[in-house]
Amino acid sequence: MKHTIVMTGASRGIGRVAAGHILRRSPDTHLLVVARGTSGAQLAAELTTNGHAVSHVPADLGSLGSVRSAATEIRDRLDRGDLPPLRGFVANAGIQYTNALTEGPEGFESTFTVNVLAHHLFVRLLQDCFAAPARIVFTASDTHFGDFRHNLGMVPGPDWKSPDVLARAGAFPKADTTTAGRTAYSTSKLAAIHLVHEYARRLPAGIDAVAYNPGFVPGTGLARHADPVSRLAMRHILPLMTLTPFATGRNAAGRCLADVVLGTTVAPTGSYVDRDRVDLSSEESYDPRREGELWDAVERFTAV
What is the per-residue pLDDT across 165-202, written as a single tens digit (0 to 9) for each? Predict the structure, then answer.
């Protein structure tokens, strides 16, 4: 049966690979990509080959107003029957800044805005459009563990605080440094896992929510805001780590993401999928009280 999957972060990295796999392996899918400016139209044109159905909606995930407009357009297209029933949402876009001071137009810290608030707003505004069975997938990160085994000493672990603090610039010590920016990233990925647990409690039966961890994937666009030396290392040196068990190649990570989206990787709602298997996320990530507080806060921030 024809159906729609909405996806952010499909224009580069593992998202681009996953989009190709989804279309090839699920020919009944209409893939709707959400991307900034003209990149969505360009991506849709690239993917619309061999009869694949691809369309786009423009949005800047750093602006909740832009996200709201995009979600409204998607709802309108679904209501008019211009799109087949909605059965999936892939929250794959992510950002990492070189500080914890960058703000979006609504005054929220930009890492938290893109990695948490924007995707939550999409889920909530599209929630009553999903046709069961449906699956929501959040791309997480094993940086949320905060230990050397998972972070290789490259990204500080999360530093959880009240959501009212995390959502604002300057939440972490020495907020103008790369360390603070990376801490904001790992903390936002922990928040995403918390929200997946809360979705599993709150979403109607038949709408599953799953967190997917691709592992450390060098060579993607995640470090595009980093200093020149770091960008050089991510692009040309660290990809050599994919020859070891400590990193995942972009193609493998994208294929695994597609497996989760399409249900090839069986995962009950609320699960954490580590590459190709269901596993436990960090001990810290299981905290119903914190998850409830985060839910209340993001509902307030996004004014759902």
Answer: 999 999 999 999 999 999 999 999 999 999 999 999 99
State the DSSP H helix or E strand holding residue 57, giving kind and residue range, or none if neither: strand 53-58
CA distances from 268 to 18, 47, 134, 209 (A): 21, 30, 12, 8
H/E segment holding residue 137: strand 130-139
Q: How far apart are the first and last CA of the chain?
A: 31
- Is the peptide bond between 133 and the residue preceding it cis, with omega within 30 degrees of 0? yes
> Measured in whole angstroms, how far is the alpha carbon of residue 21 from the centre of its chain?
18
**Sequence-distant (≥ 6) Cβ neighbours of residue 301 within 8 angstroms:** 64, 108, 117, 163, 167
CB atoms within 10 A of CB 190: 29
Buried b (16+ CB within 10 A) or exposed e, 4-22: bbbbbbbbbbbbbbbbbbb
> Is CATH 1.20.1250.10 correct for 3-302?
no
Q: How much is the pTM?
A: 0.91
Domain coordinates in residue numbering, the chain = 3-302
The 10s digit of each residue's pLDDT in 164-175 is: 999 999 999 999
Q: Provide the pairing of β-strand 86-91 with 207-213.
A: unpaired
